[in-house]
């Protein structure tokens, strides 16, 4: 019987130093102009939902890329496309530089052995009628062969030890409802690690957990990145956690990437107006008045997205150029890009400034009532 792969074996097959810069290594997983349109059912069958449009993304061994944006921006759709749980409408998925589109059961199994997904809700992703032992042994047998006896017990011990669920005897025979949310998510991570993957796609892995245990899960993923050299896509709506955890951050709005760069720069010096608003919406106990300012309006319809920049209906700096032509991702600094005409050299470009200052403070209830009384008196 072949010896099951170990963490060391998995790490050694990953090319390059985990701390190499992107320029020195080849991406493990890459999406090129990835697009996903969902047909709209009904009498207008020609319409589609533009969930993801022309997204380029690269994941490197030993590095974390965060995908940040509000609900409905297309983040989770990208994770499912990369996991090949649904087909792309257009574009390519490359694994080690080669086309990785799964065209059958065998090719899909080869793919998922290297690319694993961690879902948002750990209780929903685990079968409530089965124990931790069942979930992990099933994954081990799928990816490592039909281990039995002492070999299977050793593999179980190894997985639970990797996710810091020790002593193993305390957890291995429990059901999901007998575990806390953080423990359930650690079991889900252990199940993904049974394949010794090169890539983990973490779809909001901490959003369903108590605030007190979120940091522990992020630290666990960081430890796996450092020890095993795994490439991680971290999907979140919390840009603050992206700064803490990710090496690089991509900001999405209405199905498109609008800004990218190293996490520290993106969060400390946002270039795109939407990124400024996203950061400004984070709670800050030292500046609660800033919460009174923010984007007006709603996110656009993805069935009939606005022409030009998709953020233009909510952007205080938008010009006719923004309303008619789609901005490409432009260089705005070393290793940084933003899809905003304000950084172009065109004469009709918009003049940018602070979005929060441009919006001004929202009127208070008392001020609104006084203004209404004044209008009534004038009549």
Automatic annotation (TrEMBL):
It comes from the Bacteria. Residues 1-25, 277-305 are annotated as: Disordered. Residues 29-279 form the ABC transporter domain. GO terms for molecular function: ATP binding. Residues 11-25 have a biased composition (Basic and acidic residues). The keyword Nucleotide-binding applies. Gene3D superfamilies: P-loop containing nucleotide triphosphate hydrolases. SMART domains: AAA (SM00382). Keywords: ATP-binding, Nucleotide-binding, Transport. The keyword Cell inner membrane does not apply. Pfam families: ABC_tran, oligo_HPY. NCBIfam families: oligo_HPY. This is Dipeptide/oligopeptide/nickel ABC transporter ATP-binding protein.
């Amino acid at each position: 019987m072949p010896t099951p792969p170990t963490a060391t074996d998995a790490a050694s097959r990953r090319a390059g130093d985990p701390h190499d810069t992107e320029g020195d290594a080849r991406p493990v997983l890459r999406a090129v102009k990835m697009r996903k349109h969902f047909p709209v059912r009904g009498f207008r069958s020609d319409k589609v939902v533009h969930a993801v449009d022309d997204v380029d993304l690269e994941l490197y061994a030993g590095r974390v890329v965060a995908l940040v944006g509000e609900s409905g921006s297309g983040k989770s759709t990208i994770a499912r496309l990369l996991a090949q749980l649904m087909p792309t409408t257009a574009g390519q998925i490359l694994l080690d530089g080669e086309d990785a589109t799964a065209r059958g059961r065998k090719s899909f199994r080869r793919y998922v052995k290297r690319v694993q997904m961690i879902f948002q809700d750990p209780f929903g992703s685990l079968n409530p009628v089965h124990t931790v032992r069942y979930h992990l042994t099933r994954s081990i047998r799928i990816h490592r062969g039909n281990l039995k006896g002492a070999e299977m017990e050793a593999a179980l011990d190894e997985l639970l030890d990797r996710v810091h669920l020790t002593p193993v005897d305390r957890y291995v025979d429990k059901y999901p409802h007998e575990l806390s949310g953080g423990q359930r998510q650690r079991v889900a991570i252990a199940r993904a690690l049974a394949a010794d993957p090169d890539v983990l796609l973490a779809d909001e892995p901490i959003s369903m957990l108590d605030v007190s245990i979120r940091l522990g899960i992020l630290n666990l993923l960081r430890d796996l990145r450092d020890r095993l050299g795994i490439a991680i896509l971290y999907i979140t709506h919390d840009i603050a956690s992206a700064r803490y955890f990710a090496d690089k951050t991509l900001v999405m709005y209405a199905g498109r990437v609008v800004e990218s760069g190293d996490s520290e720069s993106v969060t400390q010096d946002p270039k795109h107006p939407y990124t400024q608003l996203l950061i400004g919406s984070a709670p800050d106990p030292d500046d609660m008045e800033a919460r009174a300012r923010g984007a007006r309006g709603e996110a656009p319809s993805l069935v009939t997205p606005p022409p030009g920049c998709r953020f233009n209906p909510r952007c205080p700096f938008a010009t006719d150029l923004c309303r008619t032509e789609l901005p490409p991702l432009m260089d705005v600094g070393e290793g940084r890009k933003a899809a905003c005409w304000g950084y172009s050299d065109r004469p009709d470009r918009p003049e940018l400034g602070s979005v929060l200052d441009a919006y001004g403070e929202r009127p208070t209830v008392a001020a609104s009532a006084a203004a209404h009384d004044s209008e009534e008196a004038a009549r």
